[in-house]
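Sanity check

After download, print the first record. It should look like this:
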Amino acid sequence: MPPTPTPTPTSTSTSTSTSTSTDPTMEAIGQAVTEGRAGDVASARRKLLALWSTIGVTGDPLHRCTLAHYLADLCADPAQALAWDVRALDAADSVTQQRVQEHDTRLRIAGFYPSLHLNLADGYRRLASFEAAARHIAAAEEHAPHLPPDAYGDLLRTAIEQVAEAIGRRDTAERTQPDPSARH
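Expected structure tokens:
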């Protein structure tokens, strides 16, 4: 999972981002994510939903992608999480590399896709939509070479393998994860 305080679907550093400008929306998303990880999921969800209302469905795609990605983490219902995961992927398709670089010079939009497709694959699997799950796990595998050669990349590569195996077994059980902040 990307670290806070600058959450993005593929940030790999635990330090403050190498941002070229201050982005109050990304900071607000980061604060809500931190609050949710600290245990106040309801408050974090409310804050992210309020931000979503402000951003809107045509707002900055980096904001929409990041917010939807993290809001999915706060949904106990796999169908609700899946809806946010779909929004995150849709927004990612509109994010330019230039916009990502404006936010954090270490990030590449291509690195977002393994995580986004993995989350979709896992969501569809949980809902027993195995054909859709298989399509998204294949996409996650296709994009996996864009993952960094670090602990975050290893975490995602392992999760891709585990979800692929679960899809093959037609297993709909919730996956256990190493820690609560490890969702991809």
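If your output differs, re-run the checksum step. Summary of this record's structure: The two ends are 5 Å apart (CA to CA).
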